[in-house]
């Protein structure tokens, strides 16, 4: 039987889900006798969470600067949660009850996954000149994602593999039309691609 572990990566959480998860962890660790001296401190987690929550509320206006600020504060919050997760694992060891009491999620037991499903909610946004932002819902069982793109009318796809379900492409030629698609990478060798999306680059 494998040793129980907690999830130490948070990049698959949607913005609001990350906020809620951080609140759960903060509440679970507060006055938790299993974790007497959290490192980093719960005050540091509270500050990172407050900053992220404030930045998240400001993105409702859709400003690019506010989105950048939100992304930066999210990264800082993820960093605090990651370092705190290492502390939790060090203290709890393989005690599943103690691990669960921290508010962190346990890593699910691995199960064989066959052909991965087609990507859902695949989107392409062109936020700035020469840039394309690709995103999709995380696919269960995917170890990584194969993003592909090409200039419209050409045959060869350019391939970029990412562990995250989002990708930013830069230095694309302005005014050109591009085609984009993505597939999850798992145990099966077969790739099931999303619908292709065409978009002009600013």
UniProtKB/TrEMBL annotation:
Matching InterPro entries: FN3_dom, FN3_sf, Ig-like_fold
Protein name: Fibronectin type III domain-containing protein
Species, as recorded: Pedobacter albus
Lineage of producing organism: Bacteria, Pseudomonadati, Bacteroidota, Sphingobacteriia, Sphingobacteriales
């Amino acid at each position: 039987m494998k040793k129980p572990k907690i999830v130490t990566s948070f990049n698959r959480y949607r913005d609001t889900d990350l906020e809620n998860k951080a609140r759960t962890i903060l509440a679970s660790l507060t006055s938790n006798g299993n974790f007497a001296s959290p490192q980093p401190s719960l005050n540091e987690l509270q500050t990172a969470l407050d900053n992220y929550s404030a930045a998240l509320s400001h993105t409702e206006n859709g400003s690019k600067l506010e989105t950048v600020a939100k992304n930066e504060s999210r990264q800082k919050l993820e960093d605090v949660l990651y370092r705190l997760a290492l502390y939790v694992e060090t203290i709890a060891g393989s005690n599943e009850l103690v691990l669960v009491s921290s508010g962190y999620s346990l890593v699910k037991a691995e199960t064989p996954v066959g052909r991965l499903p087609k990507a859902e909610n695949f989107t392409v946004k062109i936020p700035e000149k020469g840039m394309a932002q690709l995103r999709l819902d995380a696919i269960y069982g995917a170890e990584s994602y194969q993003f592909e793109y090409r200039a419209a009318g050409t045959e060869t796809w350019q391939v970029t593999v990412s562990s995250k379900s989002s990708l930013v492409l830069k230095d694309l030629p302005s005014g050109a039309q591009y085609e984009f698609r993505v597939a999850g990478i798992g145990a099966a060798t077969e790739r099931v691609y999303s619908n292709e999306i065409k978009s002009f680059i600013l």
